[in-house]
Amino acid sequence: MSSSKDSENKKNQKRINLALQGGGAHGAFTWGVLDKLLEDGRLDIDGICATSAGTMNACALAWGMHKGGRAKAREALHDFWRNVSTSSQKFNPMPQWSWGRFTPWKGDDSLPYMFFDSLTRIFSPYQLNPFDLNPLRDILQNSIDFDELRECNRVKLFISATHVHSGRLKVFKTNEITLDVVMASACLPFMFKAVSVEGEDYWDGGYMGNPALFPLFYETKTQDLIIVHINPMERAKTPETAEEISNRINEISFNSSLLKELRAIAFVKKLIDHDMLKEEYKDSFTNVLVHSIRADDAMADLGVASKFFSDWTFLTDLRDKGRAAMSQWLKKNYDDIGTRGTIDVHHEFLGTNENVPAGAGKKQQPAPKQKKPVSRNKKKTA
């Protein structure tokens, strides 16, 4: 029975690319999205671009696919997040106090968070953490074999990190991914020392690409792109408390690079739709079909401190919300894959004032010469 279902899924498979945002423990929502996608079996993943927590998910999935297909990928994702929960209980700069378990997960007003946040504004990680201890390194070493991951040919990976000295984005491909590369992609500069990769220092990729989309357009031939958002694009009300303001600034900052790339995609789509490209350049541009799975509702009551929560109940709750979001998305949009994008990029992310005028790019014709006006005062003669 299972074999017949698998062969039916393979027959109906459609190829997609994925873009996975970063966001600490909130990445468990993306875990749920990927878990449902793998379980469903109708989508074949060509490439994944990712940052920070998205990088962890992408590497676990790709390594699992390399080792044993979809079932192994689901297992690898589960084991990674289980290890996060278990290991982080021993070392977490912002633990939840006992009474915090009986309140909403937000946590930005908790004493541990306020104390730690204040501390990082005064002291750098070079002072607070001179030995650069980071439990994530051990978690990754125990969860993923990076030597085997570099041999993966089932999924193409594009991992973003921010080059500290130049401020430029660096994208690492599958055959370049090491433990240090993944640590660099998730390196929060207020908490950890910059991570050195081949003599160059890097910070979290979210500052310059959360995630970077452009490698998918040059390195794959797949049109459909599903963006899995962790950082809410919209909030229902204006933040008023110091914690709410800080959290919203954080969300806006980590969405800004993605919005710039979506603006570029929207511009190219407009050029293609209005046939504004010269014939010799048409093959150089891809009409990207954009799809979006947003976590705005799931993150509505969560503040920035909850990105450090590692409680298994919290993580699996986010996972279940991600699974539900992916299930609903597939039900509604699966038939559109390969045919059309399921979001209006201008309306959803850029605002209607970003539209390219229909006549843009066309060669302007010189204005016709004005004829001399004919006097209307002349009397008609017979």
Task: Throw out a few tags for this protein.
eight-stranded mixed beta sheet, single chain, disordered N terminus, 382 residues, 8 strands
Write a structural description.
With about 375 residues, the chain is α/β, with parallel strands linked by helices. About 45% of the residues lie in helices and about 10% in strands. It has twelve helices and eight strands. Strands 1, 2, 3, 4, 5, 6, 7 and 8 form an eight-stranded mixed beta sheet that branches. Helix 10 links the parallel strand 7 and strand 8. Helix 2 crosses helix 3, helix 2 packs across helix 11 and helix 3 crosses helix 6. The chain is globular. Residues about 1-5, about 95-110 and about 355-380 have low confidence and may be disordered.
Radius of gyration: 25 Å
Number of strands: 8
What portion of residues belong to β-strands?
5-15%
Total number of helical segments?
Answer: 12
Distance N terminus to C terminus? 97 Å
Average of pLDDT: 83
Proportion of residues in helical segments: 40-55%
Question: What is the ordering of alpha helices and beta strands?
Answer: HEHEHHHHHEEHEEHEHEHH
Query: What composes the largest sheet?
Result: 8 strands, mixed
TL;DR?
With 382 residues, the protein is α/β, with parallel strands linked by helices. The chain has helices spanning 2-12, 27-40, 53-88, 111-122, 125-128, 135-143, 146-149, 179-185, 214-219, 242-273, 312-333, 345-350; strands at residues 14-20, 43-50, 156-163, 169-173, 195-197, 200-204, 224-228, 289-293.
